[in-house]
Amino acid sequence: MLKLFSYLKSYKVLIGIAWILMLVELFVELSSPLFMARIINEGIEQNNLTTVMIWGGIMIALSIVSFASGIINSFYASRISQGFGYDLRKEVFEKVQSFSFANLDRFPTSSLITRLTNDVRQLQMVVFMGLRIAARAPLQIIGAVIMSLIVNWRLALILFIVMPLLLLFMIWLMSKGVLLFQSVQRKLDTVNSVMRENLSGMRLIKAFLRKNHEQEKFATASEDLKETTMKALRMVELSMPVLLFVMNTSILIILWFGNIQIANEQTNVGNIVALVNYATRIMHAFSVFTFILMGLARARASAERITEVLDVTVDLKDGEGSAEEPDRKGNLLFDHVSFQYPITMENVLNDVSFNVNNGTTVAVLGATGSGKSSLFQLIPRLYDVTAGAIYLDGEDIRTMSFDYLRKQIGYVPQETRLFSGTVRENICWGKNDATMEEIIDAAKAAQIHETIIKLPEQYETKLGQRGVNLSGGQKQRLSIARAMIRKPKILLLDDSTSALDLQTEAKILEAIKSLSCTTLIITQKITTVMVADTILLLEDGEVVAKGNHDVLLKDSEIYQKIYQSQHHGEVV
């Protein structure tokens, strides 16, 4: 938690101002009972209206000063806490952006969203409370006890004895609260996960009539969150009855013995009123302290979750090469490459070796789970190889900077993903400074231009979240246009033409040839494979056959079966 509060260093001056203003408020609060005692002892009991007016006027003036200090303190506390929240969110978001896929596998998306929103908000509230009331509450308790000792030390001993007992009770309460609120945040992650999954898959849920199942699933997660939150809040709220009982008992004892001292002329009414006032202020401070402890318990749980993200060691190290190196030709070499995901014990790819010359097209064929997509993810270094090396024009890609390497690559993943914004903005994801002419050329090459100009606002048409208002084939073609506008040296198409008809696919492949880039295509279509210069046949993470269509049709039994299944005929 202290590590996160280091982000407050840039607000040192503002924090100093806020605390000074808070101390002014505290001074007025602690001095008011003394003035009241003086008004009673020297004014009311002596029938001296002048004394009442003088000290009353001083109290009013100090109250105005306290009011102004409180308003300004709130302004600075809000400004600092909001700035702190912004800095922390920015830092966490940038850290997540630096994650490799292996790092991201550790954190569910819903959990990262909760950490960036709810958890940061909990810390913001603690910062605000720290500048507004958190520091004042303990100081008010200490100050009130000291002032009560000055007024009447014998009666004040009652408060002096009670305070440590209440403090120990609060510390115990906080230790229990931290564990409970950690559980609350985990349950909140679960609710967010269920809700996110439900909203993103709404069409499928309706199509399969799974509404009741999803409602029950959400109700269960929501019920768990409710029960855990109620348990945590019950624990915290336990403090109030205990606090009120102890403090009210203390006040009754003070009044009892105070009455005896007044009868024996050992004190006066004004001092007893001051003592009761201090006891009441202590009780109020402890009730605020309870609220603070609840906030601290939640903030501590949130701080641990945020620190967990910030402390992650990014396992992909950026290469030392410059982002301004000259463009490559596109020769690609896999040299005895093996790979396994961090959460698995077995290799997904095992001793894979092949060479791709620049400007050629390679089709990667294989059954589901054979390692095709994993192979693609290694090329832009979304993951690093476990063994072996990948070379681009003779240089190990691990020595290149991420920016430089990925500028050479156009990647269309298996799961088509578009972003909220216009059609033009989605294509420009591939090249930020693309001209309108380049955008149109890329759209034409991807065979999506004719579709775009029929949209209500053509290239400025807004797309729904994840391109929900486009068909599967349209989304694929838009993703291909996004990759082609980069004019990459290496183009990776991960089953990116599965929703396209053969004629459209053929036109796109013809347009790709004009880019003179090295193209790797994952596909299950024999018609696509046949036009490739080289075919890689993967099985259980290994290259079991390599060659062009004619060679594999003659020599590979597996390829023959795939060909037969799609052409319903015998191999000659």
From TrEMBL:
Its annotated compartments are: Cell membrane
Q: Does the keyword Membrane apply?
A: yes
What the entry lists under PROSITE patterns is as follows: ABC_TM1F (PS50929), ABC_TRANSPORTER_1 (PS00211), ABC_TRANSPORTER_2 (PS50893)
Keywords on record: ATP-binding, Cell membrane, Membrane, Nucleotide-binding, Transmembrane, Transmembrane helix, Transport
Q: Gene3D superfamilies recorded for this chain?
A: ABC transporter type 1, transmembrane domain (1.20.1560.10), P-loop containing nucleotide triphosphate hydrolases (3.40.50.300)
Q: Tell me one GO molecular function of this protein.
A: ABC-type oligopeptide transporter activity
Write down the CDD domains for this protein, in alphabetical order.
ABC_6TM_Tm287_like
Residue ranges annotated for the ABC transmembrane type-1 domain, each copy included: 20-298
What are the record's GO terms for cellular component?
A: plasma membrane
Residue span(s) of domain ABC transporter: 332-565
Top-rank taxon: Bacteria
Pfam entry (one): ABC_tran
PANTHER family to which the protein is assigned, alphabetical: ATP-BINDING CASSETTE SUB-FAMILY B MEMBER 10, MITOCHONDRIAL (PTHR43394:SF1), ATP-DEPENDENT PERMEASE MDL1, MITOCHONDRIAL (PTHR43394)
Q: What name goes with this protein? A: ABC transporter ATP-binding protein
